[in-house]
Amino acid sequence: MNRYQHRSWQAAVAALGVLIFLSGCGSPIDAAVNRLNGAKQEQPVFRAIAFPTDEQTLAPGASYSLTLSGITPANRKVELNSDQVSYTVSNPEVAQVDSQGRLTVSKQAKTGSSVWVTAVYKQTRATMRVRVIVPLKDTIKIDSNGLAVVTNPADLSVVVNKHRSLPADYVPADLIQPNIPFAGQGDLEKKHLRKEAAHALEQLVQAAAKQNLHLVGISGYRSYARQKAIYENNVRKNGKERTSQFSAYPGQSEHETGLAIDVSSPSAHLALDESFGETKEGKWLAEHAAEYGFIIRYPKGKTQITGYAYEPWHIRYVGKEIAQEIAQKGITLEEYFQGK
Ligand SMILES: [Zn+2]
C-alpha cells in the first residue's frame, strides 16, 4: 500500500466514523462501504495493460482501430476507454495514429517495413508491432494474353513464380558484377546482380570465407531473351510437360529479377544439386543467408507452395528485414505475403 492509499484509507475511516456518529445505526455504513466498493470498481487497479494481439499485418493506406485492455490482478480483462490512453508509433513515415487511437499506414509504406506502437495508460505501457505487406493481388494485372504480370518488377520484395510473370521487357536498371569468385571466365550476363543484392552477396561470401568456406557464383541475372532460349531448347529436347517441371517459362524465372543467384562450392564440385545442401558451405548458407538479406527460396517440403523442388543453391535477395522473418518462421516468400 502506498502513501496515497494510506491517506485515502485514513480519510475513509474518518468519514465512516462521522457517519456512525451522525446516524447511530448500521445501514448508512453499508451504503458508504458500497459506495467505496463502487468507486473501486470504476477504477480497478491493473497489473498490466495489453493489446489484443502482439502483431498486426496491414496494407499501405489501411486503417486500424487500436484497442487496449487493462488486466486486473484476477486476470480479468477490462477494455479501456481510448481517451484515457496515449499512443505513439516508432516511425511516423510508416504509420500514424490519431487522438482517437486510429492507426493509418502510409500509402507509400513498403512491404517489410514495420512500426512499434506504444500505448501508455497511467504510466503502464504495452507495445505491439504493425508490419506492412502489400497484398499480392494488388501487384498483378492480367495482360492481353491472359497472363498475370507483376506491376512491381523492381521491388526488392517482388514475387515471381509460375503464377506471376515479369513483364517481357523488364530489365533491371542497376545490374553490376559482384566481386566474388565465379565459375567460368569472362564478363557474362549471368555474373550480374542488382546493386543492393550484389553488395550483400559480397558480404555473405566474405563472411563464409572467414569460416574457411568457399562459395562460388554459378548463375545470377538472366534476361528474358536468354530464359526464352533456355526454355525453348529444353522443350525441343524434353517436351513441354517435362520441361515445365524444372525450367521456368520466360518471364517466370526469378533470375530475371536480378535478385536471385545459384551458388555452389568446390566441396560440391560446383554442382547445382541437393548434394550442395549437405556440404559445410550449403549448411552455413542455410543458417546465415538471412543475416545478409537472402533466403533459400525453394526450401525442402514446400513444393506445393513455391512450385519448385528443394534447391539449396538458389538464393534470393529480399532485404534483411523480410529475410530474417522468413528464416525465423521457417516459411516461404509466398507464405510471408499470406501474412504468416
Ligand atoms: Zn536458380
From TrEMBL:
<dbReference type="InterPro" id="IPR008964">
    <property type="entry name" value="Invasin/intimin_cell_adhesion"/>
</dbReference>
<dbReference type="InterPro" id="IPR003709">
    <property type="entry name" value="VanY-like_core_dom"/>
</dbReference>
<keyword id="KW-0121">Carboxypeptidase</keyword>
<dbReference type="GO" id="GO:0006508">
    <property type="term" value="P:proteolysis"/>
</dbReference>
<feature type="domain" description="BIG2">
    <location>
        <begin position="45"/>
        <end position="131"/>
    </location>
</feature>
<dbReference type="Pfam" id="PF02557">
    <property type="entry name" value="VanY"/>
</dbReference>
<keyword id="KW-0378">Hydrolase</keyword>
<dbReference type="GO" id="GO:0004180">
    <property type="term" value="F:carboxypeptidase activity"/>
</dbReference>
<protein>
    <submittedName>
        <fullName>D-alanyl-D-alanine carboxypeptidase family protein</fullName>
    </submittedName>
</protein>
<keyword id="KW-0645">Protease</keyword>
<dbReference type="InterPro" id="IPR009045">
    <property type="entry name" value="Zn_M74/Hedgehog-like"/>
</dbReference>
<dbReference type="InterPro" id="IPR052179">
    <property type="entry name" value="DD-CPase-like"/>
</dbReference>
<dbReference type="Pfam" id="PF02368">
    <property type="entry name" value="Big_2"/>
</dbReference>
<dbReference type="InterPro" id="IPR003343">
    <property type="entry name" value="Big_2"/>
</dbReference>
<dbReference type="InterPro" id="IPR058193">
    <property type="entry name" value="VanY/YodJ_core_dom"/>
</dbReference>
